[in-house]
């Protein structure tokens, strides 16, 4: 497998890319040396019309609020006692146990707005005390048993892209913590072409796996926006959904089996192709977020590499008409693989954000058709050419019947080209003094409009201050026969004095509102540390007790990522 790049510390993109700074290795807590910090200017990532729109809507004046140099990030000395470190070294080897500054900083938290704010302000108080790299299931199980014996918390680390505080290492007993980096277990173990199954280590990422499968004419097809960095183990641990999950299924649907190393032993779960041998324990590991143990191997369902791909845009007159159109597609079992229906605010922002002649023509054409205030829909199909043609034809007829107007492939291809760009743009917006964060939920078709309105209202009320209002941009990102998910992007003028409190209040208000309106706590980002106060509202007190009992059996010393999933 090719070398997989690490993520930059204070934002998005590969380490040693333009946004990264190299940290000289030094004593714990000591400063490193800053070599490079080059931030792309806002003008390079947003056209003038979009910058003006943001300034007008948000009451925001662009300002330079760059992160502190990486060398100035505060890092407390490692709390790992020397005898504990030596026990870890004895088990894993010296080269696989690190307490150095760079390793600890690279494993500090994930990539939520709050994570980035902290890192940009120079706060790495959530950094692990050491980073360890087991190389096999047996070593991982032995590591967890050792952590239980010496009282050290173990936080599995895949790609480090959690956006819900999944890597914050919170521990009520304040024990030292190790980040269990799965980068050494990043190879393909077996490919069973006849059964369409591939078995991989948890640290494998999408690009490397697709490259490997492509050589055999196969594909996994799971492409979340974090695809460049997130790992197979992380996807399973968080029940991720990718951009084509409407068609190929969520990551949960792609897992045929997995191995879970726990402090109490190793569980082999899943029996492809199907089994009726009691409740499916695989479901316990999916979404377990490192709280029950470490996923050390996964067997995944793969498909033939698509020979045809077609993405195109449509326009609906209104959000309600768009939702009704998607519902109709779902009812007739004609859902495309990719579906993305933007609400009017997101449509407006997308249109302003698009640049070039094609974009001007599109804006003009929508105005002429009286759809300037409508909703954009992007749909995509992948597969055999004949199947793509037939599915597209049938879906087009349903969309037309629901009042949608076809905009053509340029809109669809533009979405496809830019589909991994948003987190890079976010860094430039943060540099310029904005609050930028996303949240997500799902609801039945009946509840969806109320959930949409309730989340918008909660965010606008919480973030509106001194005459300023946030922009709340929403799209449907995954569609099911029974309902759909909503993905919300929030932009606001950042409160430079209290930026963390500003977002915490907004997030609390939005989460309360979406649960009260009938939405789920999370459709694909997981619970992490950030959502756990609300888990009981979703699964009930008895549900929490059942999970707690399972954890007690597998992890009696509570060393496996104790800060996530289960409420205090
Ligand atoms: C810009 C951006 C875009 C994103 N887009 C999407 C998206 O489109 N769809 C989506 O679903 N999510 C998305 N996410 C969220 C995130 O990428 C997913 O949650 C992803 O599944 C995390 O994978 P990871 O390998 O980075 O895991 P990490 O962030 O390293 O870990 C996530 C959680 O899983 C645990 N964990 C990791 N590996 C293992 C393992 N092997 N065994 C047990 N526990 C483990 C960790 O302890 C942690 O609690 C996005 C995040 C960002 C920053």
Provide a concise account of the structure shown.
This protein is about 35% helix and about 20% strand. The chain is an alpha+beta fold and about 575 residues long.
Portion in strands: 15-25%
pLDDT averaged over residues: 93
Question: First CA to last CA: what distance?
Answer: 40 Å
Query: Pairing-aware structural class of the strands and helices?
Result: alpha+beta
What's the CATH class of the largest domain, please?
Answer: Alpha Beta
CATH topological fold name of the largest domain:
Uridine Diphospho-n-acetylenolpyruvylglucosamine Reductase, domain 3
How is the main sheet built? 7 strands, antiparallel
Which stretches are poorly predicted, pLDDT < 50 over at least 5 residues?
Answer: 22-39
Provide structural commentary.
It is a single chain. With 568 residues, the protein is of the alpha+beta class. The chain folds into three domains: 75-305 and 531-568, Uridine Diphospho-n-acetylenolpyruvylglucosamine Reductase, domain 3, CATH 3.30.465.10; 308-417, Alpha-Beta Plaits, CATH 3.30.70; 422-528, GMP Synthetase, Chain A, domain 3 (2-Layer Sandwich), CATH 3.30.300.330. Helix content is 37%, strand content 19%. The protein contains 20 helices and 18 strands. The protein has helices at 42-45, 48-58, 82-92, 101-106, 113-121, 137-150, 206-214, 232-238, 245-248, 251-254, 282-285, 319-331, 344-353, 357-368, 385-401, 409-417, 422-431, 448-463, 499-516, 535-554, and strands at 97-98, 130-132, 153-157, 177-181, 188-192, 197-200, 218-219, 255-262, 265-269, 294-301, 303-304, 308-316, 338-342, 375-383, 405-408, 434-444, 471-480, 483-493. The strands form four sheets. Strands 15-12-14-13-17-18-16 form a seven-stranded antiparallel beta sheet, sandwiched between helices. The chain has a five-stranded antiparallel beta sheet with strand order 5-6-10-8-9. Strands 1-2-4-3 form a four-stranded mixed beta sheet. The longest helix is centred in the C-terminal third of the chain and has 20 residues, at 535-554. The chain is globular. The two termini are 40 Å apart. The protein binds flavin-adenine dinucleotide. Residues 110-111, 155-163, 166-167, 182, 202, 224-226, 230-231, 233-235, 237-238, 240-241, 289-290, 294-295, 423, 524-526, 561, 564 line the site of flavin-adenine dinucleotide (FAD). InterPro entries: Alkyl-DHAP_Synthase, FAD-bd_oxidored_4_C, FAD-bd_PCMH, FAD-bd_PCMH-like_sf, FAD-bd_PCMH_sub2, FAD-linked_Oxase-like_C, Oxid_FAD_bind_N, Vanillyl_alc_oxidase_C-sub2. GO terms for molecular function: alkylglycerone-phosphate synthase activity; FAD binding. This is Alkyldihydroxyacetonephosphate synthase.
């Amino acid at each position: 497998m090719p070398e997989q790049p690490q993520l930059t510390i204070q934002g998005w993109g590969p380490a040693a890319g333009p946004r990264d700074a190299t940290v000289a290795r030094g004593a714990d807590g000591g400063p490193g040396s800053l070599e490079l910090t080059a931030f792309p200017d806002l003008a390079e990532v947003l056209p003038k019309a979009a910058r003006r729109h943001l300034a007008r809507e948000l009451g925001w004046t662009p300002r330079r609020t760059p992160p502190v140099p990486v060398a100035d990030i505060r890092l407390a000395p490692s709390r790992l006692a020397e005898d504990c470190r030596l026990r870890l070294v004895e088990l894993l080897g010296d080269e696989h146990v690190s307490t150095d500054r760079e390793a600890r900083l690279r494993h500090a938290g994930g990539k939520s707005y709050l994570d980035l704010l902290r890192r940009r302000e120079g706060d790495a108080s959530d950094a692990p005390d050491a980073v360890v790299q087991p190389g096999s299931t047996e070593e991982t199980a032995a590591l967890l048993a050792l952590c239980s014996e010496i009282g050290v918390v173990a936080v599995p680390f895949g790609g480090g892209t959690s956006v819900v505080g999944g890597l914050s290492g919170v521990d009520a007993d304040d024990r030292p913590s190790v980040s269990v980096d799965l980068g050494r277990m990043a190879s393909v173990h077996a490919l069973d072409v006849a059964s369409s199954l591939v078995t991989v280590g948890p640290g494998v990422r999408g690009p490397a796996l697709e490259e490997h499968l492509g050589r055999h004419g196969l594909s996994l097809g799971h492409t979340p926006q974090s695809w460049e960095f997130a790992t197979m183990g992380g996807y399973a641990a968080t029940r991720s959904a990718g951009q084509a999950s409407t068609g190929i299924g969520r990551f949960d649907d792609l897992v045929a089996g997995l191995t879970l190393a726990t402090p109490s032993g190793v569980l082999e779960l899943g029996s492809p192709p199907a089994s009726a041998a009691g409740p499916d324990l695989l479901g316990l590991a999916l979404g377990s977020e490192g709280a029950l143990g470490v996923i050390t191997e996964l067997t995944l369902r793969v498909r033939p590499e698509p020979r045809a791909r077609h993405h195109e845009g449509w326009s609906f007159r209104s959000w309600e008409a768009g939702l009704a159109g998607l519902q109709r597609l779902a009812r007739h079992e004609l859902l495309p693989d990719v579906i993305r229906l933007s609400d009017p605010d997101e449509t407006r922002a997308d249109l302003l954000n698009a640049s070039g002649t094609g974009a001007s023509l599109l804006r003009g054409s929508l105005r002429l058709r009286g759809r300037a205030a409508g909703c954009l829909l992007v749909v995509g199909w992948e597969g055999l050419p004949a199947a793509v043609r037939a599915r597209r034809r049938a879906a087009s007829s349903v969309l037309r019947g629901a009042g949608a107007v076809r905009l053509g492939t340029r809109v669809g291809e533009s979405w496809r080209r830019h589909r991994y760009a948003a987190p890079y743009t976010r860094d430039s917006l943060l540099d310029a003094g904005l609050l930028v964060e996303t949240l997500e939920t799902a609801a039945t078709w009946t509840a969806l409009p109320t959930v949409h309105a309730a989340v918008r209202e909660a965010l606008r009320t919480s973030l509106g201050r001194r005459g300023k209002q946030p922009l709340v941009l929403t799209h449907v990102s995954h569609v099911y026969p029974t309902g759909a998910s909503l993905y919300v992007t929030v932009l606001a003028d950042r409160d430079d004095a209290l930026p963390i409190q500003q977002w915490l209040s907004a997030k609390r208000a939005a989460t309360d509102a979406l649960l009260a309106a009938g939405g789920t706590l999370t459709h694909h980002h997981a619970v992490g540390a950030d959502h756990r106060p609300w888990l009981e509202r979703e699964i009930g007190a008895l549900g929490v007790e059942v999970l707690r009992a399972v954890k007690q059996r597998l992890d009696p010393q509570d060393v496996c990522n104790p800060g996530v999933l289960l409420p205090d």
